[in-house]
Write a structure and sequence with these properties.
The complex is a heterodimer of chains A (398) and B (380). Chain A is built from 12 helices and 10 strands. Chain A is an alpha+beta fold. A 4-stranded mixed β-sheet of chain A has the order 1-4-5-8, with helices on one face. In chain A, a hairpin with a 2-residue loop joins strand 2 and strand 3. The two termini of chain A are 20 Å apart. Chain B has 380 residues and is an alpha+beta fold. Chain B has helices spanning 7-23, 26-34, 40-52, 71-83, 91-104, 107-118, 233-245, 251-267, 280-309, 315-337, 349-355, 366-376; strands spanning 124-127, 143-147, 150-161, 168-174, 185-191, 197-202, 211-222, 226-227, 269-270, 273-274. In chain B, the strands form 3 sheets. A 4-stranded mixed β-sheet of chain B has the order 1-4-5-8. Chain B has a 4-stranded antiparallel β-sheet with strand order 2-3-7-6, with no helix packed on it. A two-stranded antiparallel sheet of chain B has the order 9-10. The two termini of chain B are 32 Å apart. Classes of the chains: A alpha+beta (398), B alpha+beta (380). Chains A and B meet through helix 7, helix 8, helix 9, helix 11 and helix 12 of A and helix 1, helix 4, helix 8, helix 9 and helix 10 of B.
Chain lengths: 398, 380
């Protein structure tokens, strides 16, 4: 049992911590957020040069052979600094889909271009009727010769306007709720029949609603197996949840520390407000939630294993997201409350962390969604069988 | 980063698991499974089995009968005992007074008391709280006045777990009433058969008899029963409390209770289906399970840190808070799961719920733990 980072991982951590400290001050970040793209292409080039864009992808797919731990290290630092670049949509969601679902040389080339920083990607899975559930798909793809014709709409595609290529979940057979019949297609943002409505998100990022009208794609656009892509899509989304969870832990830890500093410095009634027990206890509860979240993050992160048992992975990831969503809300609301009026000001940093954390609660599934998924995967029904083998090992339950 | 136990630790776990399965008397196991109260003999029987295998006092130094296990192995041992429905390790002798004697006692005290704890000849209880001194323990007023070769003790101690079974009590008493409040306290070992010691039962809201008052009226105790120095008792008392908090997360026990809860909710019929299939209740169970899973990893992180630094950290305070909140949440759900069956005093759904209200009060209330964390972890 070991919760420490390897020396290589420690170097990555130092490198990313240094980068965000230099590049992501409050004003610099606001300028990036208010730019046309909503992120910095210069920074993106730096990430490519530093090797971050392929860091956790398998070596036989052109990556650098790291593990989800490397992604976690980067994402936690990004969370601490409210980094805006589309790392999760491009690298974690797009990169994972291509690395594990790519079927031809063009897919390999595309992945290499992504790792080099030349191509941006995103994932379009959510629909008006699906909320967070990837198995509910009404966007259709009808066979057309050897290829497909796509029709439908996708909601809130992260950094969708900047993405050169989208990975889109479509239904190639069955009804809206069937697990079978879901296919992942790679679609060019600029293909005929593709349109998008772009918007700024409430946390200063960007997203797009996409419409596909009679969009023609070839057979080589398919990632994974036609009609059988739900398993791949769930693995991709779970990788994304783990990454966002790491971002959330970074975010929360800043809110927690900043709040403690604030209540030590802020004086009312002639004393620091941190001397009041009611505030102290709330600050302790923030600390506890950060520590529980960090503990859970490790569990959820190591569960991201392409060779692992999918049901155990889903339970670990859903438990992680449920915990982190709950904790993030407690920490965020407490941070605003303990800051008082300044917590409501757009010109002060804490509100920006709160807004990002609030969206992280929802992104790729909120606590409600993930608790239901946890139950569906076996929790809540019958004795010890409902615990994952990792839980059983820890708890010694047979 | 590797979150699994090493092969050696897994072998150790199998060894302990097999030991419990082989050695735990079925009658005791049954009482534990159904939540029946254990007798003094049940506890002593199990302690003697543990001692015969050298497992009674894993935390002690080897020269006194300890095991030299790693921090992780001690954790596995505790968890395996809980999982196998063995009686909980009563802390009062092995984990409370013994570490104080080992660290601060005389050679004579070590030679006399430690073997008697291992052999179960002595059953210890804890004389800390008083009617007027709970969280503010240092305000205690029990007096120990020097009279030649004896201390004469007068006062009242309360909330004393299983004092009805004990023959020995360690007492915090004021030896110097003129000193500042923490300074005048001493740590004294008292034979409960001494004239003037009276044990009175306190019935608790769950109908059980776990706790007692102990009254001291002119109880004469030889001065050699003082531990360490006169007036040094507060230091030893705090040392003991730090030890106590390490044992109160109860993760394995909570996983067991959660299992039992799922069984109850799976058997509870509602409108042609079961309670757990109603969805809402399953979700509430899942909420607790998620938090318990987070706690189990938090505890492992604390153990890993303790292994590295060789000293327990402040994590024990928040682990105590969350561990006890989870225990209480599970018993709340058990109460609710039983519906009208919970009214029936022949079931223990409600009794368990009532009984577990104690967990956020004992071993330093959860509010006191938050005070400790605010001061020492956050610097507030």
């Amino acid at each position: 049992m070991d919760f420490t980072l390897s020396s290589d991982q420690q170097l990555i951590k130092e490198s990313v911590d240094r980068f965000v400290a230099d590049a992501y001050g409050f004003d610099a970040r606001m300028a990036i957020s208010n730019s046309a793209d909503g992120f910095s292409r210069d920074h993106w080039s730096t990430y490519a040069e530093l090797g971050w864009l392929g860091i956790a992808l398998p070596e036989d797919r052109g990556g650098f052979g790291g593990t989800p731990i490397e992604t976690m290290i980067l994402m936690e630092a990004f969370g601490k600094a409210l980094v805006l670049e589309p790392f999760v949509p491009t690298v974690v969601l797009g990169g994972t889909a291509l690395a594990f679902g790519g079927t031809n040389a063009a897919h390999s080339d595309l992945l290499n271009s992504m790792i080099a920083g030349d191509v941006l990607l995103s994932l379009a899975y959510a629909e008006d009727n699906s909320r967070y559930d990837p198995s509910i798909v009404s966007t259709s793809a009808k066979a057309d010769g050897s290829g497909w014709v796509v029709n439908g709409k996708k909601r809130a595609v992260p950094y969708g306007a900047a993405a050169d290529k989208l990975i889109v979940s479509v239904r190639t057979s069955g009804g809206e709720h069937d697990a079978d019949g879901i296919t992942l297609l790679l679609i060019d943002r600029d293909a005929a029949g593709v349109s998008h409505f772009d918007f700024k998100t409430v946390d200063g990022q960007r997203a797009s609603d996409y419409t596909f009208e009679n969009v023609h794609v070839g057979a080589d656009a398919v990632l994974g197996e036609p009609g059988k892509a739900l398993g791949l899509l769930e693995f991709v989304l779970d990788s994304g949840v783990a990454a966002l969870s790491a971002e959330a832990v970074g975010n929360m830890s800043v809110m927690q520390k900043t709040t403690v500093d604030y209540i030590k410095a802020r004086e009312q009634f002639g004393v620091p407000i941190g001397s009041f027990q009611v505030l102290q206890h709330r600050a302790v509860d923030m600390l506890i939630e950060v520590e529980l979240s960090r503990s859970m993050l490790y569990y959820g992160t190591v569960a991201i294993d392409p060779a692992g048992n999918p049901s155990e992975r889903k339970r670990a990831v859903s438990a992680t997201k449920a915990q982190i969503a709950r904790s993030g809300r407690t920490v965020g609301q407490s941070a605003i409350q303990l800051h008082g009026g300044i917590g409501m000001s757009e010109e002060y940093m804490i509100g920006h962390y709160f807004k990002r954390m609030s969206m992280l609660e929802l992104a790729l599934g909120d606590a409600d969604f993930h608790l239901r998924r946890l139950i569906a995967e076996g929790s809540g029904h019958g004795s010890a069988a409902s615990f994952t083998s990792a839980q059983k090992q820890l708890a010694g339950v047979n | 980063m590797d979150l699994s136990f090493s092969p050696e630790d897994l072998r150790f776990r199998d060894e302990i698991r097999a030991f419990v399965a082989r050695e735990l008397p079925p009658t005791i196991k049954h009482k534990m499974q159904v939540g029946e109260e254990l007798s003094r003999e049940d506890y002593v029987t199990w302690q003697k089995i543990l001692n015969a295998h050298g497992y009674l006092a894993p935390n002690w130094p080897v020269e006194h009968g300890g095991t030299n296990w790693t921090v992780v192995q001690k954790h596995i041992f505790d968890e395996e005992l809980a999982v196998g429905f063995a009686p909980r390790q009563l802390p009062f002798g092995v984990s409370m007074v013994a570490p104080v004697i080992i660290n601060f006692g005389s050679e004579e005290q070590k030679a006399y008391y430690l073997p008697r704890i291992l052999s179960s000849e002595d059953w210890w209880c804890q004389g800390y709280s008083e009617p007027g001194s709970g969280s503010d323990l240092a305000s205690l007023s029990t007096r120990a006045e020097r009279d030649g070769d004896h201390y004469v003790i007068n006062g009242q101690k309360t909330w004393i777990t299983l004092a009805q079974y004990a023959n020995m009590i360690f007492v915090l008493a004021r030896t110097d009433p003129t000193a500042k409040k923490q300074k005048g306290i001493s740590f004294i070992l008292v034979d409960m058969t001494t004239p003037g010691v009276t044990v009175r039962p306190i019935e608790t809201i769950d109908g059980g008899h776990e706790i007692n008052e102990v009254i001291f009226e002119n109880v004469r105790v030889p001065v050699e029963n003082l531990v360490g120095t006169e007036g040094g008792g507060w230091t030893y008392a705090k040392f003991l409390l730090e030890h106590e908090r390490n044992g109160t997360a109860g993760v394995a026990g909570s996983f067991q209770m959660l299992d039992r809860l799922k069984e109850i909710a799976g058997e509870e019929r509602f409108n042609g289906s079961t309670l757990i299939e109603s969805g809402d209740f399953a979700k509430r169970i899942a909420e607790v399970e998620v938090r318990l899973t987070a706690l189990s990893y938090a505890q492992l992180r604390a153990l890993a840190a303790e292994s590295a630094t060789k000293s327990p950290g402040l994590e024990s305070s928040y682990i105590k808070i969350i561990g006890t909140e989870i225990q209480q949440a599970i018993t709340e759900l058990m109460l609710e799961a039983g519906a009208y069956a919970s009214f029936d005093s022949r079931t223990n759904n409600a009794a368990l719920y009532f009984n577990y209200r104690k967990t956020s009060i004992y071993a330093g209330s959860n509010e006191i733990q938050r005070n400790i964390l605010a001061k020492r972890m956050l610097g507030l």
